[in-house]
Design a protein that fits this description.
single chain, 238 residues, mainly beta, Immunoglobulin-like, five-stranded antiparallel sheet, four-stranded antiparallel sheet, 1 helix, globular
Length: 238
């Protein structure tokens, strides 16, 4: 009798467990896995020959403006086809290209949006400031940022020039190019590094301000123009 009673109880426990709910309870956590990776979107930059280009564009460089070195390099192949770069939009880029006459052209600090950018290379993009005699594939930018501001009382600037000796004679470059710099306003431009410069500025009254023998190395250079930099009459290279 005891064995029979034991088997009856065991059967009752087994069959009562079969109807138990096995669905996840409200405390269960379900993790949803997204198996579709995010696709990186790119913008297209085209380098197209324009006025002032001798022959065709032979090659071009593209890099982030914050980088010291030129990044992506492309040769023009097939011939006479635009050179294109695929870049991540929403960032600033620098561009350099070389034409058939070995003239170098530069485009600095361009914000590239999602719709891309077309650089129609013009003669104004060729800066004799960058007239150097290294191999065209030279990968280092070798440029520094110059920040110029005027102190109160110095007037409105109509000319900002840098003068240096490139080994073949003096090179004088105008940076304002018809613009006017108001007092307490900053003007920024780029120059080649590892050179000594004369900085020469003039206001709308004809007053001249300058500093001499300024060695420009890597990094930024700041000059706040004040009356202590003023001279009445000095020789201005033509």
């Amino acid at each position: 009798m005891k064995k029979a009673a034991f088997y009856l109880i065991l059967c009752f426990l087994l069959f009562s467990g079969c109807g138990e709910n096995t669905e996840p309870t409200s405390d269960s956590t379900t993790v949803k896995v997204d198996e579709t990776p995010e696709v990186q979107q790119y913008a297209t930059v085209s380098v197209i020959p324009g006025d002032g280009v001798s022959g065709q564009i032979k090659n071009a460089y593209c890099s982030l403006s914050d980088d010291d070195d030129w990044g992506i390099f492309h040769d023009a192949y097939p011939v006479n086809e635009p050179i294109t770069f695929q870049v991540v939009p929403g960032r600033h880029y620098d561009f350099k290209c070389l034409d058939s006459g070995n003239n170098r052209f530069f485009k600095w600090d361009v914000l590239i949006e999602e719709d891309g950018f077309e650089w129609h290379v013009q003669s104004s993009d060729s800066d004799n400031l960058f007239r150097y005699y290294s191999h065209p594939s030279d990968s280092h930018k070798g440029v520094a940022l110059v920040h110029i501001t005027t102190a109160p009382g110095c007037g409105v600037l109509s000319s900002i020039q840098t003068i240096h000796d490139d080994g073949f004679g003096e090179v004088c470059v105008e940076h304002l190019n018809g613009q006017f710099l108001q007092p307490n306003t900053e003007f920024t431009f780029r120059i080649r590094t590892h050179r000594s410069y004369l900085f020469l500025v003039e206001n709308t009254y004809g007053d001249i301000f300058f500093i001499c023998d300024i060695q420009i190395e890597e990094g930024d250079f700041h000059w706040e123009i004040s009356s202590r930099n003023q001279r009445g009459v000095i020789w201005v290279p033509q």
